[in-house]
Amino acid sequence: MASRPLADLACFDPDRFERHGYPHDVWTRMRAEQPIAWHDDGIREPFWAITRYDDIAAIGKDSETFISSPGVTILRRDQMIPANAPRVPLMLTMDPPEHHKNRMILRERFKPSVMRALEEHIVARCREIADDVAARRVGTAVDGSDGTIDFVEAIAMRLPLDVILELLGVPTDDRDQMYLWSSAVIGSEDPDYGNVDLPREAIMAAQQAMFGYFARFIAARRAAPREDLVSLLVEARIDGTPLTDMEILGFCFLLAIAGNETTRNATSGAMLALIEHPDARAALTADPAAMPSAVEELLRWVTPIVYMARTATRDIDIAGQTVRAGEKVVLFYPSANRDERVFDDPFALDFARKPNRHLTFGFGRHSCLGNDLARIELRAVLAEVLARFPDLALAGPVSRLRSNFVGGIKQMPVRLHG
Ligand code: HEM
After folding, report:
1. Is residue 42 in some structural domain?
2. How many CB atoms lie within 10 A of CB 79?
3. Which tens digits make up the pLDDT trace of 201-235?
4. N or C: which end of the chain has fewer CB within 10 A?
5. Pocket perturbation via mutation, ligand 1, pick of 67, 233, 262, 378 by most ligand atoms within 8 A of CB
6. Is Flavoprotein set as a keyword in this record (predicted)?
């Protein structure tokens, strides 16, 4: 076998993500010198690291050669799930034809026109959040002083969780509990939320707790359906057969996590970018009509999901290397979004960037079902914050999640008034 170019391990090291944020310098070098490189740190499953936009898009599009069912995340070797172990069915890790049948169930409810009808409600929710912040009803004072709060806790975490819980049809009073469960799944390798040595156990425990919680609602909606997503799932059929409780739980679990971790971190990351680019922020504050294109650029800039993995079903050449059947490829979305072959001056934050075909929501069959909702939420929350707290400024260092999967911000201390 020809020798494989070896990846710089810094491209996937969770400690580095926690300390410094995304390793953009490493990804930039990889795009230039080894756009496909073999990553083997002896701890996790080995994989091919893919860093160029065109390769990532081509792999995303070819869902016959690159499948999702063996898993879209890279696990530690001592935490691997045996192939025959029972698994929760998740659309994210299905292949055709099951994937299509499952996605069809939700597609209508997430289409742009349905999402646009929600916009007014989302804007009103943002106003309530800002009212609570202004009245100091939320937000721990990070340094004991009155004007300093944690942006994540007081603002960024609320909207996405409230919206997805409302869509599912479960009470928003349980938001904080849901936040902790969801953080344990996504932050399974972070000492604050998960278990650095046994991340799998942290995920399983949170998953069990979430399942117990959702099971009550599934039983209630089976007895008396309403208009919400749990009722839709209870009434759905695949090839004429109703979904099992386990299948419905899989949907609830996926939506509760995907609908909140991503948008929360996009919100915090976007606000941080605005704080760090005062000219762009001033221009946007002065011209709210620029918000949709600003949000696209902020989505490109932040790219809250670091990667998704695929498994090759046959031997195939990519960028001069042979990927063997059964090997994993990891698609680094933030790297695609800084690819100088596609974006002019990719390290400049440019709200007028056009076109802006970022891969923040993935590409192909599995591309994000909630992208319209996420865009509406981001526009609404950023518009409200810019208008209500024009002097909002950073009041201390940002603390980041120990994760190489989600670019998470755990805390972002801000001062509301100059
Ligand atoms: C800024 C916010 C968001 C980002 C960056 C994001 C990112 C992504 C990405 C990259 C994928 C592709 C997975 C793959 O290629 O395997 C995905 C899939 C998905 N997202 Fe999102 N997402 C966001 C918000 C949301 C929201 C608000 C929801 C739901 C309410 C949602 C629900 C889903 C679902 C259900 C899938 C699986 C689709 C499939 O497998 O067919 N996402 N998302």
Report:
1. yes
2. 17
3. 888 899 899 999 999 999 999 999 999 999 999 99
4. N
5. 262
6. no
